Amino acid sequence: MREIKQLLKEIIPPADYQHRNGFSNEHIILSLSEVEKVEVERNLIERLKKNDDILIGETLAIMKSENSLQALKKKLESTKRASTRIIWASYINEIKGGDEEMKNIALNEFGNVTEKYTLLSTFHYLSRLNDPRIKEKIRSYINHKDYLIAYNARTSIGIDTKDLIEREREKNKSKWWQFWKQ
User: pTM of this prediction?
Assistant: First the structure.
């Protein structure tokens, strides 16, 4: 058995760009022995009670940790930020294999996400809820005038982006050195 403290450091690295950009711990979680799973789950639930790190929630969702539902629900209830509520709801939904209450919370909060870059990542959490009503709301963004919004909306629900990319290239066909004319 691997040492749990070291394992936890590998599973939940420091919350900075250097350690988290492109990071996934799924391969580590899937390689845990049953004894390690129990210890890691217990430690992550304890950490979650004191910490708002969404990677902890994501990890518990990967583990399908039903023991973490109470702690995740507390996180959901304690946060006021719409995008964060959507994230916690998506983890709870994933662990339960579908939950109408979580889908409704996410659907209601979706309208409160207005900041562009927050919206981009929120699309992907929303799509994980696998709800036709939410998918339809995301679909309303697939032709958005902002390329990044349209692109992320499409990728989150599995719509090909080829025509969108082509349209963007056509729009920006001017000579690159004349960017100030746009």
Answer: 0.89
